[in-house]
Each structure stands twice: as structure tokens, then as C-alpha cells.
Amino acid sequence: MARKSNAETAANPGRLKQIALTYKMTRKADPKVGLIVAGVGIVTFGVFLAIGFLIGHPVYLGILGFLVAFLAMAIVFGRRAERAAFGQMEGQPGAAAAVLDNVGRGWTTTPAVAMNRNQDIVHRAVGKAGVVLIAEGNPNRVKTLLAAEKKKLARIMPDIPVHDFIVGTGEGEVPLKKVRTTLLKLPRVLTGPQITQVNDKLRAMGDLMSNMPVPKGPMPKGMRMPRGGKMR
């Protein structure tokens, strides 16, 4: 029991520090976040307290109002923090891969299965909806990468549905903040064993990341990618 108490005590400062850091990052993109969250808490608590006085139970409704206000503040802050994070990632190379890492259970994601020298990238996700190719970069250039990947997939598993979309804010594109919901809304057509078989085939086929070393960070301007696909 003592060890558990010590562990919880040590964890609390870490959580508080993380919340403070999240708040600072959110405030940079959303300067009014503090006022809005505080306003939500005050209004919620005030409503419950007023109802408590009307029905003659201000203490009980006050306690309930405090708990509900805290919950409402947490929900509002979480949503605005998420919106601020997506706003900062929007347009950054590899942003879609970061979102795919948090899609949830039932999905296997592989970043950068295809990429060109302009840093247009195609990521891959496998789940009950089949195979989903998520592209980010110039829409005109990235369509060539998508077509090549779809052709490759059709050759090794023609019966598996393949979906694709481009991340962006243009017409027909999917905003970064809607990538996760777009994947989860796709119709579920594969069973668990079928998903395992698809992943096994894809691992056997290999991908860009496993067949060549890709340096972290932006690609150096002087580096060229030859037609064969391997970097020198």
C-alpha cells in the first residue's frame, strides 16, 4: 500500500506538469482558451447553484455543480487543445502519420510506404475496412504515388477493398482533424483473420521504409532520388 501511495504521489506532479505544458501550447494558438474554459466552469456552477437555491438545496446542488463544472471545463479544454494541435500540424510533412498513430485498436498503420523527392508521402492503414492509403503533399503529384500503390495492392490481393484519400483543405480532400473519423466511418468488411492475412502479405511485400534508409527530418535539398526508388 505504501509503495502504491508513493507511486501515485510521484505521478501526480508529472500529470500536472503535462497539463500545464498542454495549456501553454494551446494558449499560443488559442489565446482565449483560459477565459473560455473559466467561463464555462463559472456559468455551469452558477446554474446549478441557482437551481439549488430555488429548490431549497443549495449545498447539494452546489457540490454537484462543482463536479459538473469541472467535467465541462475538462471537455472544453480537451477539444480546444486538440483543435490547436491540429492547427499547428496542418501542412507539416508527416502530420497524417502522427494522427494515424492514434486511430485506435483494430488498425495497423505504416507510415511512408511511398514517397518522392518532393516529400509527397503515402501512408497505409489496415483494418476491418480493408486497406486505406492516406496521402499528403501536392495533390497532382501525390496521385501518381497513390495510383502506383493501388496497382501494387491489386496485384497481390485483388479481392481486398482499397480506399484512398488525400489530406488537405482543398476540394475533395480530407482535413487533418477528420482523418481519424474518416477511417472509422468506412464500412467494415474484413474479419480478424482476414486482417492478419492482409498484414502478413504486406509485410512479405515490404515497403519503402523497410527497403531503404530514410533520414529523419526534411530531405536535404541536394539529395536526389533516382528512378529506381533507392536513395544514394
Structural class: alpha+beta
DSSP helical segment count: 8
What order do the helices and strands follow? HHHHEEEHEHHH
Distance between the termini: 58 Å
- What's the rounded overall pLDDT mean? 79
Query: Considering DSSP H and I runs of 4 or more, what fraction of the residues is helical?
Result: 55-70%
Question: What's the domain count?
Answer: 2
Number of strands: 4
Strand order across the largest sheet: 1-2-3-4
Shape field: elongated
Main sheet, how many strands, which sense, barrel? 4 strands, mixed
Radius of gyration from the alpha-carbon trace, in angstroms: 24 Å
Low-confidence stretches: 4-10, 208-232
Beta-strand residue percentage: 5-15%
Pfam families: DUF4191
InterPro entries: DUF4191
Features:
alpha+beta; 2 domains; 8 helices; 56% helix; elongated; disordered C terminus
Description:
By secondary structure, this protein is an alpha+beta fold. It has helices at residues 2-29, 33-55, 58-89, 95-100, 139-156, 179-184, 192-205, 208-211; strands at 108-115, 121-127, 130-136, 162-167. The protein has a four-stranded mixed beta sheet with strand order 1-2-3-4. Helix 1 (2-29) packs across helix 3 and helix 2 (33-55) packs antiparallel against helix 3. The longest helix has 32 residues, at 58-89. The radius of gyration is 24 Å and the shape is elongated. The N and C termini lie far apart (58 Å). The model is unreliable at 4-10 and 208-232 (pLDDT under 50).
